[in-house]
Write a structure and sequence with these properties.
This protein is an alpha+beta fold. 49% of the residues lie in helices and 17% in strands. Helix 1 packs antiparallel against helix 6, helix 8 packs antiparallel against helix 10 and helix 16 packs parallel to helix 18.
Length: 813
């Protein structure tokens, strides 16, 4: 029996699903039309071309329609839709609602399709004679990409996953037998706490623009082979390749910055499989760019340039498979779970891999492969060697990252490396040492032939200077304590910077076309130096010789690298005195205020600042913490909370109930006169005066009733608090009203009046150590990390300059 469900808003979902089907159908139509436009020998008949364009325009409009419908559903909290319920909530501010749009698989596929639609329209406008074959490949990619959003069954097999599936269709629960089930669904599950960050708004769009742009050089390479325009395709492809390298590299570094600012693993790169998946195609396309330049200038290395260009996009699709198929579920916290797309993702990779292999095999005998070997002392030879090392670096990342894939294919049970960070660091440092050296050496070489004597003299001079500077830097920063391979990376980076500074100086004098590559290489060298020093010589300043925070903590953190701070109790930590002195809440984050003071030998405070690391007590993930960092010019001081008592996240409801004596140590009664002082564990208490007319809320006093308040001053760790417990005589009954001083860990009661002694009795309840407010925190010093971030900016500027140069070289073809 059909149930007439109440309150569901079905129109935006139906409309959105219509746009998905239209986007898929129009992309497929455009693929077919562009294919026949390319193969049509009648140059005067442009019907197929116009149909291809029309199909892609419709696809672009449809993709926008899908996005508009999905955003409407999320923004209006229509939790009858599974996607809105899974990734958003009513408590999220608007900017996080925007980011929840691409939090799930379907939303991120849409984002990718959106950028691919934009790039396709640019190519229709700019590609000229390349439009037909290039757009055939772009449209094929768009067809497969939009198919991931279909969510329809074909011959019993589900194709794709639609963001417009209703909650009652996605889940099975008794609640959905009720027509008014929506009345029981008050809110969505919300955004993952780790993703509630401004980087979630800007990082995914940049990253997916990088992924989308990788299809353009791939399409030009396929088109060049298809149309037998073997040499011509590299000119336009080079500009788009530089753009893809720039954008994807920016996205990867943005992810590193996000991790550094918001994650608590203590750094900017953890060689997580998802990080590797984005980094791998970037490496191969960087190699492709350099080999394309070699071919453009010398005619050598055509196959290598073509292969690296083609494999880069295939690796983007493989990266998508790794992160979306669920295969990395046990090795990466960043990957998506399997949404039934495993086979679909495999097909996507295989289609473009087979396309690339088939086209190369088809044209193999006609490829313009140079039979003359490169001169050993030529720039093209060593740029080619550098590209090979980039490819080897990529291969090592693929092999280790793909261990779960090999296990799935061959039914093996190979365990991932127990210490993957060390393994990757050593291998990748070896490749980096060679690559940085080559980015310097090649600057002293000429294409085709080099004056060997001049090359050796210049190279030796710069190598000597680089060795001297490296020795000084290594000594001052402590890099010499690391393995020799990291010292070699430092040497190669310094040498690369010096060599490229020379090129930059020459460019300023008149060789302007060289400025882009010089700036990009200088930025890369600075990045490597910054990453090496900050990661290799970082120091944990929260050293704790005898810390023990329980067995559960030892599973997730190192007690020797964390200190416990009780509220208002200063602790010496390295050069600082740190004090946890307060909390604030800005839902859903709970901020812990930590005061840092640097005090000189005379006791004078020479520096003071407050850091506010925050945490969320998430029911699914436990304590989710984000660091706060004090930025200096030459180092960063990074702080995050590793542990906090659950009570810190409790609300204040019922906080002043009197029946909570069990939360305190047994009371100690003190007889006091006005002016007396009693010491306690964390300070002392003074009885300032007795108040004959205290205020007792909601209790009217009769003519024969008497109430007295004890005005107390509490001094704890240099902080002063006031409290006034009250003693009440009402008829024949005696009452007292306790007062809590939570920041001092006290509850105070006025328990007796002793007229014969002229004294009163004050009972002091102290919280036990286990009940005192505290945090466990970790603090790390990252030296010279600004070299990493500034190097990134400089490298991006270099890519931009190179793109401008290559665009000027383009002619209408």
């Amino acid at each position: 029996m059909d149930i007439a469900y109440q309150g569901e808003h079905l129109i935006p979902g139906h409309l959105g699903q219509f746009f998905i089907i239209l986007a898929f159908g129009s992309a497929l139509f455009s693929t077919i039309s562009y294919y026949f436009a390319t193969t049509n020998t009648n140059n005067f008949d442009n019907s197929w071309l116009w149909m291809g364009r029309l199909g892609y325009y419709v696809n672009a409009v449809s993709v926008l329609g899908v996005g508009a419908c999905l955003f409407y559903i999320i923004y209006n909290h229509l939790f009858e839709y599974h996607y809105a319920w899974s990734h958003s909530s009513r408590t999220l501010p608007v900017y996080y609602i925007v980011s929840s749009f691409w939090d799930g698989q379907e939303g991120s596929f849409w984002l990718w399709a959106f950028w691919q639609a934009v790039l396709g329209n640019i190519l229709i406008w700019k590609a000229k004679s390349w439009e037909k074959p290039v757009m055939t490949v772009i449209c094929l990619a768009q067809t497969l990409l939009t198919s991931f959003l279909l969510g329809v069954e074909i011959f019993g097999t589900r194709v794709g996953s639609s963001p417009f599936i209703l909650l009652r269709q996605a889940l099975e629960a008794p609640i959905f037998s009720q027509p008014d089930y929506l009345s029981f669904i008050k809110d969505g599950q919300g955004l993952n706490p780790l993703l509630q960050n401004y980087w979630m708004i800007i990082h995914p769009p940049i990253l997916f623009l990088g992924f989308a742009s990788m299809v353009v050089p791939f399409s030009y390479a396929i088109a060049g082979l298809w149309q037998k325009r073997y040499k011509d395709w590299m000119k336009p492809a080079l500009s788009y390749s530089l753009f893809a390298v720039m954008v994807l590299g920016t996205g990867v570094v943005m992810g590193s910055r996000w991790a550094y600012e918001s994650l608590n693993f203590g750094g900017f790169w953890a060689w997580d499989p998802v990080e590797n998946a984005a980094f791998i195609p970037w490496l191969t396309l960087v190699g492709a760019v350099h080999v394309m330049i070699v071919y453009k200038n010398t005619g050598h290395a055509y196959f290598t340039a073509t292969f690296l260009t083609l494999i880069s996009f295939v690796l983007v699709l493989y990266a998508s498979f790794l992160t979306r198929s669920g295969v990395l579920g046990d090795t990466s916290v960043h990957s998506f779970t399997d949404a039934g797309l495993y086979g679909h993702l495999v097909v996507d990779v295989v289609v473009f891999l087979v396309l690339a292999v088939t086209v190369i095999a088809w044209r193999w005998k006609q490829l313009p492969i140079s039979k003359k070997e490169e001169e050993t002392y030529s720039r093209e030879f060593w740029m080619f060697v550098g590209a090979i090392f980039l490819a080897l670096s990529c291969l090592q990342l693929i092999v280790v990252t793909s261990i779960p894939v090999w296990n799935a294919i061959f039914k093996t049970h190979v365990a991932p490396p127990t210490n993957p960070v060390t393994l990757y660091n050593v291998f990748q440092a070896g490749f980096a040492a060679v690559i940085t050296l080559l980015t310097g050496i090649t600057q002293f070489l000429k294409y085709k032939k080099t004056d060997i004597t001049r090359f050796f003299i210049t190279s030796v001079i710069y190598l000597v200077f680089a060795a001297l500077i490296t020795g000084l830097v290594v000594y001052l920063t402590g890099v010499y304590k690391l393995q020799m391979v990291f010292v070699l990376v430092m040497f190669g980076s310094v040498y690369s910077i010096l060599a490229n500074v020379k090129v930059f100086a020459d460019a300023i004098k008149g060789k302007v076309k060289l400025v882009g590559s010089a700036v990009a290489h200088i930025g890369f060298g600075l990045m490597m130096i910054g990453a090496l020093i900050s990661a290799g010589t970082k120091t944990v300043i929260s050293q704790n010789a005898n810390g023990d925070f329980g067995d559960d903590f030892a599973k997730v953190g190192n007690p020797k690298e964390n200190i416990m701070l009780y509220k208002y109790e200063p602790v010496k930590m390295g050069d600082y005195t740190v004090t946890y002195y307060g909390d604030s809440v800005s839902a859903p984050n709970h901020y812990f205020k930590v005061d840092y003071k640097k005090i000189d030998a005379s006791g004078k405070v020479i520096e003071e600042f407050t850091l506010k690391p925050n945490s969320q007590a998430n029911p699914k993930m436990g304590l989710v913490s984000s660091p706060d960092t004090k930025h200096y010019l030459f180092h960063d001081l990074y702080t995050h909370v590793s542990m906090a008592p659950q009570e810190a996240f409790a609300t204040d409801e019922g906080h002043d109930q009197e029946n909570d004596d069990a939360n305190y140590n047994p009371p100690i009664a003190h007889e006091m006169s006005v002016g007396d002082t009693i010491p306690y564990r964390d300070g002392y208490i003074i009885l300032e005066s007795l108040d004959r007319h205290p205020h007792i809320e909601n209790i009217p006093l009769g003519a024969n009733d008497a109430a007295v308040g004890a005005k107390l001053t509490i001094v704890s760790h240099g902080n002063i608090y006031g409290a006034e417990p009250v003693y009440l005589l009402q008829g024949k009954n005696v009452f007292d009203f306790a007062r809590k001083v939570d920041d001092a860990g006290l509850k105070l009661r006025f328990t007796k009046i002793i007229p014969e002694k002229g004294k009163v009795e004050i009972s002091v309840y102290m919280q036990p150590e286990s009940k005192r407010p505290y945090i466990v925190m970790r603090a790390i010093n990252f030296p010279y990390i600004n070299l990493l971030w500034s190097g990134t900016i400089i490298m991006i500027i270099g890519f931009l300059l190179s793109i401008f140069r290559r665009n000027k070289e383009l002619k209408t073809v």
